[in-house]
Amino acid sequence: MIVLPSIPHPDFAIDLATLSLISVLLLLSFLSLCLIFFFKFKTHNSYYLQSFNALWTVRFLLVFFIILWSLTEALRLPFFRKHYIYPFFEDLTLGQQASLCKLHLVLSLGLLEPGFLVTLLFLLLVSIKKRTPRGSWAFLFLLATCLPLSSLQFLFVFFQSSRSEFPSWFRRSSVIVRDGSHSRIVLCSSPFLSISLFGAFAAVYGLYFLFSCWSVVSLVINKKLRVRTYTLAFTVLITVTLQVLFLVLSLFWEPGELTFGVVEFIEFLSTFTCAAVGQGILVIIPIVDSLAVGGDCCRWYPIITQTKTEEESKEESV
Question: What is the pTM of this model?
Answer without folding.
Answer: 0.85
